[in-house]
Amino acid sequence: MEYCKLQIGCMIIVLYVACIYIREKQIYQMKRKNVLFETILAAGIVGIFFDGATAYTVNHLAEIPASVNIFLHLCFLSFLDIFVFLMFLYMYDITRGLPQKRGERIGLFLPLLINIVVVIVFMPQLEYRKGTFTNYSMGMSAYTCFAMVALYVLAASGIFLHSWKNLERHKQIAISTYLLVTIGVTAYQMFFPEALLSSLVPAVVIVGIYLNQETPLYAKLQKNNEEMVMGFATLVENRDDNTGGHIRRTTAYVKLLAEELRSRGFYKEQLTKDYVANLVMAAPMHDVGKIAIPDAILQKPGKLTDEEFEIMKTHAQKGGKIIRETFGHLGNDAYEEMAYEVAAHHHEKWNGRGYPDGLKETEIPLCARIMAVADVFDAVSAKRCYRDAMPLDQCFHIIEEGRGRDYDPVLVDVFIEIEDKIRKVYEESKAE
């Protein structure tokens, strides 16, 4: 007990977090499993256990068989490596999303596999040294472990700095906690190896990411916010008899286009995992300003007069104002800003002849440029009371004609290339 008090304290903290996490999942009926975080929890618990076990055995070498001591150190160093690797994967996932290509996945796992092999090979050569207050172990296995921690922390730092501007605040706090604690503890442990502070890393990091990212209460609140947004958007849509299903279809088109752009590496600094998620949630709000348009204009069965069209055009500016005044309480500044940009600027044109502000090219926010393509495609492909739906071939041609004039050329090129996926969404909506 004398040599593993810190580990016992850390174990109590992590077990408490695990119990609270399980209980809150049951209370809020969160059925979806968060495999990565739950694996991190398990690895942290096991790692702290072996850290405590080795802290005891290294100070009782005469009483503990050498084979047992080697086995416990092997487990400790391996789980320390695994924990750091899992945290790197976690940071990668919440910033960029895990890679889908097999080669990229192998590249992420390779340093871990190499390190564990080195740890196993050199474990018999582990050295036990006597410190001022406690004994400790060193050797090639331990040095390799330090090197791997440094490698993954360096990689995570690069990803974090690259994605900083597009991350939500709670993710910034979670990642900062991981990096600062891991760097601080590892550096101190290297210069003062008898300190045996390794258990602080999983304990503090797990608490940090739980409070800022993984608490089921946050997930429940986020789900409620999404349902509120969709309900509000549907309420607006129901005022316009001409646009049945418009929200659901345009949101699906936006998601397809944004994910395809991201997978191909276009606008990669902006199209982070969070950006796409916020865009999909913001898309239903693009026509929210129509709630301020008179029914006589909104539901007119024929073509609008010039005066009526000018009034209709104000829905973009009014939509942005509604977002600013209504959705500031959601606690997600990035989403609020994106919802504003989508509502206010989805009628801007690439050549600067759109409304309300006459923005052009990249002056138009990327989210609004994506929304514009989806909005127009659905408008021309859906039936209206004053005209039939246009054939899909003609709808794609209209989008293609607007390349470099109405729409971002990159978006048009990708949209045309995923025609089959767009058609599938369209056909599925007709079947419902």
TrEMBL record:
SUPFAM superfamilies: HD-domain/PDEase-like. Pfam families: HD_5 (PF13487). The keyword Ion transport does not apply. Its EC number is 3.1.4.52. Keywords: Hydrolase, Membrane, Transmembrane, Transmembrane helix. It comes from the Bacteria. This is Cyclic di-GMP phosphodiesterase response regulator RpfG. It comes from Roseburia intestinalis. The gene is rpfG_9.
